[in-house]
Amino acid sequence: MTIDSDGCLVSGTGSKLDAAVALFHSLSDGTRLAIVRRLADGEARVADLVGELGMAQSTVSAHMACLRDCGLVQGRPQGRQVFYSLTRPELLDLLASAETLLAATGNAVALCPNYGTDAAAGPGVTA
Q: Exposure pattern of 24-51 as b/e (b: 16+ CB <10 Å)?
């Protein structure tokens, strides 16, 4: 299995574990997670997401392409516009379970030296 720099699966997976890794990796980017959370409220166009998330159109479009390629969102063309929505309601269940787990652990994952909130600052940098 290969995952590109955007966190998208590039080649086929060899096992269910590989597929799970690809799923969680596709959701590991904050922008993609914000898009998924917004689409939980209903469909939206890229232009809507640009305004709501305060990001560049090219950034939102690239992340939408990744989510679409991973099968997590789908587009519904209407005239010259495309309205995006989540493909599976189970994704909302997954996010709800993640929030429950975070609450149960007191958000301990934020202290993880590899992926926690301080890890984003880089080695030797404290927040």
A: ebbbebebbbbbbebbeeebbbbebbbe
Of 103, 1, 75, the residue nearest 9 (C-alpha): 1
Using an 8 Å Cβ cutoff, are 3 and 22 in contact? yes
Which DSSP letter does residue 47 get? H
Tell me the per-residue pLDDT of 78-94, one tens digit each, with 9 for 90 and over: 999 999 999 999 999 99
* Residues belonging to the chain: 127
CA–CA distance, 69 with 8 (Å, rounded to integer): 8
Residues 6 or more apart in contact with residue 72 via CB below 8 angstroms: 26, 27, 36, 86, 87, 88, 91
* pTM score of the predicted model: 0.76
